[in-house]
From TrEMBL:
<feature type="transmembrane region" description="Helical">
    <location>
        <begin position="25"/>
        <end position="44"/>
    </location>
</feature>
<protein>
    <submittedName>
        <fullName>Putative fimbrial anchor</fullName>
    </submittedName>
</protein>
<keyword id="KW-0472">Membrane</keyword>
<keyword id="KW-1133">Transmembrane helix</keyword>
<keyword id="KW-0812">Transmembrane</keyword>
<dbReference type="InterPro" id="IPR036465">
    <property type="entry name" value="vWFA_dom_sf"/>
</dbReference>
Amino acid sequence: MKKNNTELKQGNSFQFFIKNENGTILMSFIFFLPIFIGLIFLSFEISCFIQKKAKLSDAMEQATLALTVENNNIPSSEQEVKNNILISSFAHAYLPEETFSEPVITINSSASHIDYHADITMSYPAKFLNKAFNLISISDIKLDESAIAKKNTSITAIPTDVVFVTDYSGSMNRDFDGTDIDSTDISKVRIVALRRILKNLHNEIQQNENINLVGFVPFTWGTKRTIDNNNTTPTLLCHFPFVPKKHSPDGNYLTKYNISGLKELPGMDKIVSLNMINDINYGKLSDKEYISISEEITDKANYTDREKALRYLSRIYYVKLENVISPVIEENIDYEKTIKSINGSDHTIDIPLSDVRVNDFCLRTSMAHTFDSNNMDDSQFSKILNSRANGGTLISSGILSGNNLFKETNNNNRKIMVILSDGDDNDNTHAGDNRINKDAPYLNITKKLIDNGMCERIKDNDIRMVFIAIGYTPDENIDWKKCVGEGNFYLASNAQELELDINRALATEDTEVGRNTPKN
């Protein structure tokens, strides 16, 4: 009897639960919950698919454009292998974790153009669906992608002179994402990729009678010039291709800041500690001497004399720091005359490299220096190319040095300046000693030159400038697209894009290297 009562109660409870609206909703929710979860994971999988397809499409478009650069006609068997590697490298660069099939490349040649067609298949695990339906094994997702590029062949090549203006700052030792990497990933380093590309390109240029490499300008915060001294040790100069307000034949723009110069300033005859110190070697003022002199100047000199003297003393003492040297250089630039010199000639700021005590300037710790057509020796070029990248960035110092190299050529060839940089200028330095004037304006040397017409003046010399940003997006402070022209600005996010961009910049035909066409 008790059992029957229990069953009756359970039956009544179930009927009550079903009749209750809340129970009905809960049962429906429990029933449809797996379906909802499956749909959510499916939407994630579809989103992932769309993203991967877009990346693969971009990779294939860039890869087929690269084919137009690497191939001038139907390829040999050796070139076919290189083409396959090229397509695969672009795919892996955009989607490094995925698996790809062997690419299929078709090249068709006609009288007026060459078509490059490439196909590839990517496979990747269905991560989200496998999580949603972990009891069911779902095979990898396969994605086919193709691209077509066309290159016109009926236009005659034009003789071209080329100057490479190349960033050799310390950040070039990072990978294309801007992070420091260990030696096991050396192939991903910006400077390593650039060296490889330029070496290969130099070999190709030697076989191409239509392209002449007339200069190579590595730069940091300034460039380096070498002057031969008749079989003796060459003179090394920290070179800034800017016209000085007052030219110094000896280049004593930095060494003029010494104790003797300080003694000549107004009001310094009262400073006893100065009279007790004989002139010391450049950059060798001790901490004790600096403190003693600065305290006495503060106590005894009037306000006007004090500020000028302390600033001068600070430069004597802190000459080893970037934020002292760079303002000294900037203060000596005559911007108006510098702009005029682009189409003419004038003095420049040249400082003995031994006077520069900061490694960030003028490739001080590197064997690299400006390389022109007068010393275009293969072994020397290779040595410079392999030199250490270290220092800051002042792009205009490289650009104007490159412009000056073109002045040494005397022909009607087309002229191309390829500017390669991986970062904005080091302008986070005040145009005055931070310790004396913290509110001084920033330097912005390159911006001032551009605002005063540097780019237009260079173009007036019939020089086509190409700017390739390596692994970064330039700050809006400077509009490089406007400077070089919309079609001459490139962003290279990996080594493959960098190589493609450089080759596109050097196209010796009066047309594009190639262009993508719609797929059938």
